[in-house]
Structures are given as structure tokens and as C-alpha cells.
Amino acid sequence: MPMSWFLLSLALGRSPVVVSLERLVEPHDTARCSVGLSCHLWDGDVLCLPGSLESAPGPVLVPTSLQTELVLRCPQETDCALCVRVVVHLAVHGGWEEHGEGERSDSKLQEPRNASLLAQVVLSFQAYPTTRCALLEVQVPAVLVQPGQSVGSAVFDCFEAGLGAEVRIWSYTQPRYQKELNLTQQLPDCRGLEVRDSIQSCWDGDNVRLVLDVSEEQDFGLLLYWDQVQGPLKPWKYKNLTGPQTITLNHTDLFPCLCIQVWPLEPDSVRTSFCPFREDPRAHRNLWHIARLHVPSSGIWQLDAPCSLLAKVALCWQAPDQGPCQPLVPPMLQENVTVNMPHEFQSVRGHPNLCVQVSSWEKVQFQECLWADSLGPFKDDMLLVEMRTGLNDTSVCALESSGCTALPSNTSTRAAHLGEQLLQDFRTHQCVQLWKDDNLGALWACPMDKYIHKRWVLVWLVCLLLAAALFFFLLLKKDRVKAAPRIRTALLLHSAEGAGYEHLVGALASALSQLPLRVAVDLWSRRELSAHGALAWFHGQRRRTLQEDGVVVLLFSPAAVAQCQQWLQHQTVGPGPHDALASWLSCVLPDFLQGRAAGRYVGVYFDGLLHPEAVPAAFRAAPLFSLPSQLPGFLDVLQGGCARLPGRPADRAERVAQALQSALDSCALQSGTPGYGEAWNPGPYPAPK
């Protein structure tokens, strides 16, 4: 019978007026300013503390009005969130106070009038249960600073919010110079936005109503079924109803092949079918969500789904490094998928690295390895692809993550490095043939274990060679350290005898430091001496020198001898310039009195300045030398048990004598001492020129 009595419609709840929104790909908040202004957005949120009102010290930048705009923040094409963009308009508020007639007009007070303005603008956002505050730094150039004038705007992207939420936005500056601006807005829901395919919450919870406009008291049958391409239809739900009726379908029950069939409950009635979801994107998403690829047995795969799928299937090669599975097309061909039926690839030999891929619209939807359960984990094999290029010609390439590398090749890939070996294995049938087609080509799996073993052997050999080289280097370094001359420390102690004598001591110290010796003398450490005190400095230097197996050199002069005699008799010296001598005497004298001076101390006096008998007997336990006449012996004692110093002894003595002779002459002229500073006769050593 005719169906004029029946009207079927879908009520999806869309509003007749929809709004299209701008999409933002950037996942983080951003800020930008209008022309002439510069903006900087602080990282992260700040505390929402407006603070109390303050008086403006001059022209300041303040927000004057707020605007909002809805956008979408979309990390993925179908995974978007509703976001509120905020535009804050800014103006210059206040001005500089004018000076009275009697006030001084200072140029420094006028300078800020020509400066730019910097403001910290806070945007506070509330949308239950979220509260956020963002801080923007906005700078206005001096040319735009005109009191009372608008300078432009700043745009903040963006505050995320829920559909249908009520949001509140405030804006103020830090410090706050005026009452904060505020704005309240009710956000639309899915019905007022063109976002049904972008925001998942707009389609995940959106049910479908079937409005069956059937005359009252009319009995009819309703059948929901899946339209199968292969075989008969597959019933899902059946009901006998009385019109009119409205039936609600859950959104997860929508599939492209879901159809509706209705008919009056009368004999020989005509049935009417309608399939309204074939082009619905939600239905296609649901179909891929519910579809499943599984391997019922080794080498057998099956794709289960309630509807037919527009998809392709192909073999791929999965390397052990868990990189992308490389499709084996060509030489193999893709095949159309038939759902709910077991399939296998003909003439394919099992291998744990062979997997099946199901793709749709160039996107891999499913992947399963066909022999994972029976043949174990992935193998580190190299897959060689043999392709026919002519009647009797073939080419061979190695499948890698970067593509198929022709063999042989000059590239820097792993297969290229082993190209000749792989070709040799291929020609001598050491590779396993996985598939062959007389017209297309073949696939070969070549084991890489032997190459890995060879590589590890080489690595171990290299490591052993490096270890041997390192050991040899350490031995050489140890021998060098033993052979290298040890630099000894010499501490020079003297009395304050005047500028000429200090110059003589300095000349001796400089000459000795060139031998080489590490020389310490108070003349070179005035700052440390004044900072720590004479007694502490001399005591520390003596202890360090003796700990390093060095030698302490006591320089005796007439004044030093007199002070030593006084110290030995009265345990003190007179006040004046001899405080330093008293300090070092108190440090070294106990070693002489207790018999510990041998090998640690050396006495020295200068030719013509002092007779050796004048040196106190207490200090004669140490070797005593007159300089420069006895320089060779003095230098031998300074050398001690260390390795021989470079150069001939005569050359070393001559260098020191030359430095001392000039200082002795200068000192003699200043002091007027008879015979003081007479030229040194080095005996068997040549005289200085």
C-alpha cells in the first residue's frame, strides 16, 4: 500500500544559526600588540592580586575597554577546545605636574617627559571551576605618549573554557591606578557553533532522535539493521509500535550501514527502507573505533566490523628498532579489505618481522604481526627486495627506515656499508626467500648476526688497543714525572737594613728564582704580611717550606747579627724596624737550639759586609756561605736531593753573580762601607763579563 501516512525525519538538535570559529594551532598562550606597541607575555600564570589604588606619578598606561572573541585551540584536527580571546584597549592616563614660577626648571626633571611608558597589564579569568591570571608587559614609545589619548590594543590568546559556561574577565595594571575593568559573558553550546566535527564533547554526547510521524492508532513495524554488502542484511532491533513515535538512538550506535525499515502491520504491506548515516562523519568514526584486526592463527588475519570498510591491506616489514613498519608495495600489491572473513597472503613464507597493515585515506588504521606468536620476537634481518626491470634483468635494494637502498651504494646507511657482503649472500643463496612472483619480483631475508659478531670483535679489538695505548701513555707519563726535576722552595729571611740592602736581597731572590727555584721573600708579599701580621706570615711560610722539603735561607747583616745577639741574651729586640726579624727569629731559633737545623737551614752573608766569625754560634749548625764568593757551594746546597738543575754549574753561578754584583756595587755606594761590594773572584769559574 502507499506510504503517504508515514513521515520519517531526523532531529539532530542543530540551531538554524551557526557560528564558524577561527582555529589556533599553537598549544601555548600568546600575546600580540597593535602597530607601534611592543608586548611580552610572562611565562605561566601569576597571582590574582589587584592591590589597592595608587596615585599615578605621571602619565601611565591603563586599560580602557575589553572585548572577547571565541576561537578554537586545536592540537589535532578533531580534538579542539573552545577558547576565549581577550582584546584590551589601552590609553595614556594622567600627565606631568606643571612647576610653579618660583620652582627650578631642571633638565633632569624634563627628561622623563620624553621617555616611553611600560605597563604591566593583568588579565584575570574565571569560569567555574577554573581561575587564571596572565600578565602582559606593554611598552608605548615616547611619540605616542599623549595624556588622554588611546594608543592601541593588546590581544591575548587565549583562555580555554567549557561549552555553555559563564566566564568573567577582569583587567587592571600593577600597580593599579584605576578601578579594574570587568566583563561577563555566556558562552554558546554546540547548537550555536559550527564545531560538531571538531569538539568531541559536541558529538560524543549528542544523541539522535527518530521522529516517526505515523497517524494515531496506526500499528506499524520498525526494524533497525546493518546493510551488508556481502550477504543478507543483519537485523539489530525490531519493534511493533503504534504511531506516532519518537525513538532516541545513542550516538555510539551510529554506523554508515545502519538503516531503518518501517511497514504497516497489514497483509502484503510494502516495506520502506532508509539509510540516513552513510555520509555522517560521526558514523564513520564510530565504525573505525569498533573495528578490530586480529590474527586467529599464524599467517591468517581478519578484520571484524559491522559494516564494509573502504580500506586497503598490505604486508609490511617491521625492524627490531620499533620504527615505522615499511610497506612492501611494490613489489607486492595492495588488496581491498573484505570484513568478517579470514584472509592470508598467498605464497608468503612465515617470518616474525612480517606484519599486515590496514590503511584508509593514506592513514594506517591497524597493524598486526602475522607470525609473532609462533616464530617469536623480531629478528635483526635485512630484507632485500628483488624487482624485475626487464625480461631477464633484476635490481636489488635493501629495505631501511629511510627507504630502499640500492645495492651496491655509496650512501652512509647500514645496508650501504655492508652492500658487497649482502649481495654475496644473496647470490650464494644464504638469504631466505619469503615471497616470489615471476612477474613482479621476490623478497629475501638476510641474517645479520654474523656481521654483528664481526663488528663486536672489531669493537673489542679497538678497545684493547686503546687500553694498551692508555697504559703505555701512563707509563711514559710516570717515567717523565720521575725524571722531571723537582722545583725546590727557598724561603729568604733577612733584617731591615735600609733600601740598599733590601735591593740586594731582592736581586738575590730574583736571580735564584731563575734557576729554577720557588723563592719566597717578604719583599714580594707586603700585602699578605700586613693582612696577617709578620709573625703569622713567617711561621706559615716556614712550615710550608719545610713540609715541601725546601730550605730556609738566613741572610746575616751587621744589624741582623746585633739583633740576634740581643735576642739570645734578652729574648727580645728593641723597637723599630726590626719587628720582622724578631718574628722570624722566634720561628727558627727553636730548631737550632733543639738540633733540627741540619738539612733545613742555610746561612748567608755578603762579601765585605760581614766577617763569618760575627755570625752567632747558635746559627753555625747550618752551612754558612759568603756571596758571591761561595756561590757554587751555596747553589749545591739549595739543590739538595733534587735532580740536577739544567745547565753547567759554572753558568748558573755566573748568572747569579752578575745579578748580585750590580746590587752590591749600588749598595756600597749608598752605604759608603769600605770594601763593600768588591768584585767577586769566582776562582776556577770564569769571571762575569
From TrEMBL:
Residues of the signal peptide: 1-20
Domain SEFIR: 487-636
A Pfam entry, by short name: IL17_R_N
Residues spanning the membrane: 456-476
Annotated GO biological process: inflammatory response
Domain of life: Eukaryota
The UniProt record lists the keyword Cell membrane: yes
Membrane protein topology class: Single-pass type I membrane protein
Gene3D superfamilies, per the entry: 3.40.50.11530
Record keywords, A-Z: Cell membrane, Disulfide bond, Glycoprotein, Inflammatory response, Membrane, Receptor, Signal, Transmembrane, Transmembrane helix
GO cellular component entries: plasma membrane
GO MF, any single term: interleukin-17 receptor activity
Subcellular location: Cell membrane
Subunit structure: Homodimer; disulfide-linked. Heterodimer with IL17RA. Heterodimerization with IL17RA is independent of the cytoplasmic tail. Associates with non-glycosylated IL17RA constitutively. Binding of IL17A and IL17F induces association with glycosylated IL17RA. Forms complexes with 2:1 binding stoichiometry: two receptor chains for one interleukin molecule. IL17A homodimer preferentially drives the formation of IL17RA-IL17RC heterodimeric receptor complex, whereas IL17F homodimer forms predominantly complexes with IL17RC homodimer.
Protein name, entry field: Interleukin-17 receptor C
